[in-house]
Structure formats: structure tokens, C-alpha cells
Amino acid sequence: MRITIADWDPRPEARAAQAPALAAHAAAEQSDMILLPEMPLCPWLAASPERDATLWEQSVRDHESGLDELGALAGTALAGSRPVLDPAGQPLNRAFLWQDARIAAEPH
């Protein structure tokens, strides 16, 4: 198995340039998977000691839509972690495997 480990800038303005470059690199290297850093599609949520509920909820939405876009562009499996809210509304950093246009595996 060939894995590309992504060095990633989570800022939206950086994503526009680096996503195609990452996809091109993964294709050129015939990668079976791209390993992304923790919560790659949002600012670092642990930067402040206090949780910002609005920022967390926005980050959840950004990952829900952004992972589909990034996965479609990358053309290979993606692994990493993303922010989620559990059924009680508690924020979690959950690992995922994105494959075949969907989240294929996510431990609970």
C-alpha cells in the first residue's frame, strides 16, 4: 500500500491551491491513501482553552462538505480526523476513512 502523508494548511484560502497539488502528487505517486492531519478543514479548535460552540459547529459543517470535495478531487481514500458532535451535543475529534464518495469507516 502506498500512502501520501499530507502537509496541510487548514486555511480556506490555502486549500484552493494545495488540494489540486495534493491530488496531483497522490496520482503521480500512485497512492492508495492520503493521510491528512487532524481536522484539516478548519482552524485549530484547541488553540483556545475555551470551546467556542459556534466555531465547532461551523467546523463540523466545513468537514462534512469539504471532505467530499477533497475526496472527489484526490481520487483516492482519505484518512484523518474531523470534528463531530455526539448525540448529546458533545464535541469530539473522530477518526475517519473516506472512500468511494463517502465516510467508509468511523469508530464510535
Description:
With 108 residues, this protein is an alpha/beta fold. The chain has a single domain (3-105), classed as Carbon-nitrogen hydrolase (Nitrilase/N-carbamoyl-D-aminoacid amidohydrolase, 4-Layer Sandwich), CATH 3.60.110. Helices cover 36% and strands 29% of the residues. It contains 2 helices and 5 strands; from the N terminus they run βαβαβββ. The protein has helices spanning 12-28, 53-74; strands at residues 3-5, 33-38, 77-85, 91-99, 102-105. Strands 1-2-3-4-5 form a 5-stranded mixed beta sheet, with helices on one face. Strand 3 (77-85) and strand 4 (91-99) form a beta hairpin. The longest helix has 22 residues, at 53-74. The protein starts with a strand and ends with a strand.
* Uncertain parts: none
Q: Output the helix-strand order.
A: EHEHEEE
What is the tally of beta strands?
5
How many domains, in number, for the residues?
1
Strand order of the largest sheet: 1-2-3-4-5
**So, the CATH homologous superfamily?**
Carbon-nitrogen hydrolase
Tally of helical runs:
2
- Rg computed from alpha carbons, rounded to a whole number of angstroms: 14 Å
Strand content: 25-35%
CATH-derived topology: Nitrilase/N-carbamoyl-D-aminoacid amidohydrolase
